[in-house]
Structures
1.
Amino acid sequence: MAYETVIGLEIHVELDTKSKIFCSCSTEFGAKPNENTCPICTGLPGTLPVLNEEVVNLAIKAGNALNCDMNRINKFDRKNYFYPDLPKAYQISQFDLPICENGYVDIHVDGKNRRINLTRIHLEEDAGKLIHIEDEPVTLVDYNRCGVPLIEIVSEPDMRSAEEAVEFLKNLKAILEYAEVSDCRMEQGSLRCDANISVREVGQEALNTKVEIKNMNSFREILKAIQKEEKRQVELYTFGEGHKIKQETRKWDSSKGRTIPMRSKEDAHDYRYFPEPDLMPVIIAQDTIAKIKQNLPELPSKKKERFVTSYKLSEKEIDILIGKKILADYFEAVISFGADSKEAANWIIVDVLRALKEESNEEMPIKAQYLAGLIKIIDQGKISRTVGKEVFSELITTDQSPEEIVKQKGLSQISGMDQIEKIIVEIIGKNPQAVDDFKNGKAQAVGFLMGQTMKATNGKVNPKLAKEILENKLKEM
């Protein structure tokens, strides 16, 4: 029996505001526990929420970027549940009148284009964070995150594989970053994903029982979690135990490589939604929607079109560069300082990305003008590419220009014909066997002698000139 997977995602995205959705507390990440709190976001009796206008504007911006219809009249509702991370025992959210509906994100997987439809985008406040201490009978609560503004983006169950789900998430993340709606830092919880997964026989129209996997914030772990849950459900149906699949919430245990039951899945009526009595309906002027749409920054699809026509790069290089807004912006900044686009792309994709990974940082490790300067002095023959790698490493740890580093460390390339010829003669004299190999038709002998030349000069010799002189000397022998 052949089965197919049906996947829908619910994505929580923290909006890029300085203050919370209903109070003036800071949304800064990394503050001391419970430092960014007040009576409103901790739900003390007698407090009243006041809606942050910028939250609404960012939700409109997200809706425009994701091709949504706007509900000019929308409202907030109370979603009731008792849990330690939500001190007032209800969450202010949106139920039947969300701010955005419909919409879509296009993806490309396995050579095919797919359109993943969106059901809705609604506004809500975030909950606090529970900290479970290993081998201790207590759980700590940090309420700093309470009241941080969120949009929840709900997709249709249009994805048919874990790979499609991850590609959808990557595209969605890029769009939100480019639209300047959120920093989408998954490691900080700015973008978190719940996956609803079911399997059914190929050709079957009806949906089978779905399972929700909660709170994942890594593309790699999302991929593995969906694949494992897919396998678990297929095995149950294959061995006639499909009835054991219950509508429930599970969590992904990455250390054990499996999903684990958390609780039975609540339906909408379990939350006892009712209109939020302390907040008026949100009425948005058409002019506001149009103005925000008109001022949208360049989105990934448009940027890709421009990169294809403006720069001589491969599609793979362009996809890597525009995959992160910070990379695309950095690339164009390096270009603006006069660097060759192909060289800039190579250095960013290989060396800058490696440095970012090693530093576990979102900040560019080298100023754009310094990388551009490094590319130019290599192109001018002032240093070799090998020495350029050394200068690059220095640029990460110092605030000196590449020219200053080259001068200070004496790294300038040896380009004088007489000086190179003298070095080549010495290398040939020290390696008679390689010379004999060359005479006997072994072309690799030139490579060996070039390696010895580079080693003797610590990579400073001009490789093009050195190879030319070496070959001429060998032919004369």
Note: The mean pLDDT is 90.
2.
Amino acid sequence: MIDLKEYIRDIEDFPKEGITFKDITPLLGNASAFAKAATALLELVPDVQIDKVVGIEARGFFFGTLLAEKLGAGFVPVRKPKKLPHTTIAQTYELEYGTDTLEMHVDAISKGDKVLLHDDVLATGGTAAAVIQLIEKAGGAIVQCNFLGEIAFLEGRKKLEGQEVKALFQF
């Protein structure tokens, strides 16, 4: 039996001093772990129609696209400013180490679309909360927020109050 957490390594002081970064690249590089994670993430999704899967740059793209394909849904990338070629909507938010802004194409989500939000790790919840605001601005309805892992002591779920939040494991 594969313990997926064994394939996540800690990188100390990245991206700045005092932050421990959860690096998923060892998991991505191991075919068995990667397949198990993809299957397990799909099993977290409720048995409802999903119209769009929203993946957060960039690590949310790896499994987000796989989930979209398996769910018969479209995929929506959320990116840092000036990375998307069409007209966008933006949301600025607080990080544990500063502020950032994310953008999504203005026409990526239609009013009433049922949306699965996916990212690799739930930390403080600021990034996911900002993306929820983008989805709601576009008229989407969030069905679930889906993560590989959750850093529980950072209490990111508090910023996602009112949302269904699932993670494969906690740190």
Note: The mean pLDDT is 96.
